[in-house]
């Protein structure tokens, strides 16, 4: 609970400079050493009650949910949209295979499915903790080394151009390109939702076999192309 007090103090200090500042807080557990709730997960869902009004965007780890999409409703139930509160999600280290994440060695649709999952669960935003978090190097052309103790590629989505050529332009990873594809998929789904409603868009995502859940999604891009084709066919007029 003393760590939550630190967050409240930081929030109060920020508000002395910008009264309408919106604070985002990430977390993957509830406070320990409190009588807040009888179970670990219930304590996790009660975090908004501890941090209100010092946080407006409650950003939780996908790792907490595992494959239990049904737990989302318990998280959202504690929020106050009337006070401008939002629910975002993030990935950092976990979740691991077979769930969607952006680690090296994961299949392409697994990278792309991070965005599908965020859209299906209904959060209003998504956070990634880092894009160029390598081990420290003295020169840009030094060999790229991922941080010790992290899954390969975690926190790294582009590379220094000097490693590959004389160019100083950063080089995008394939994973970064797959993130773009996933965000574009969301635009397709939002377009379909605007015409036929969110429930129909959810049904389309499942009917095509693109994404059914965190451990049930297409292992190749064919079903995604089918989903996009259906959106194009029905929404182009």
From TrEMBL:
InterPro entries: GH123_cat (IPR025150). Residues 84-191 form the Glycoside hydrolase 123 catalytic domain. It comes from the Eukaryota. Pfam families: GH123_cat. This is Glycoside hydrolase 123 catalytic domain-containing protein. It comes from Aegilops tauschii subsp. strangulata (Goatgrass). The lineage of its organism: Eukaryota, Viridiplantae, Streptophyta, Embryophyta, Tracheophyta.
């Amino acid at each position: 609970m003393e760590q939550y007090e630190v967050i409240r103090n930081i929030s109060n200090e920020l508000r002395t400079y910008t009264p309408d500042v919106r604070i985002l807080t990430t977390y993957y557990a509830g406070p320990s050493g409190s009588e807040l709730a009888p179970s670990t997960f219930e304590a996790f869902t009660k975090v908004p009650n501890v941090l209100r009004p010092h946080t407006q965007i409650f950003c939780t780890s996908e790792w907490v949910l595992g494959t239990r999409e049904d737990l989302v409703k318990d998280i959202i139930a504690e929020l106050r949209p009337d006070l401008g509160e939002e629910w975002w999600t993030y990935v950092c280290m976990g979740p691991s295979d077979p769930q969607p994440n952006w680690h090296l060695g994961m299949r392409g649709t697994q990278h792309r499915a991070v965005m599908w999952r965020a859209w299906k669960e209904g959060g209003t935003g998504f956070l990634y903790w880092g894009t160029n978090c390598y081990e420290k190097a003295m020169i840009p052309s030094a060999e790229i080394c991922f941080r010790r103790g992290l899954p390969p590629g975690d926190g790294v989505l582009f590379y220094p151009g000097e490693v590959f050529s004389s160019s100083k332009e950063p080089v995008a990873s394939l994973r970064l390109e797959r993130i773009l594809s996933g965000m574009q998929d969301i635009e397709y789904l939002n377009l379909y939702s605007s015409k036929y409603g969110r429930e129909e868009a959810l049904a389309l995502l499942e009917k095509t076999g693109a994404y059914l859940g965190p451990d049930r999604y297409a292992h190749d891009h064919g079903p995604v192309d089918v989903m996009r084709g259906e959106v194009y066919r029905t929404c182009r007029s």
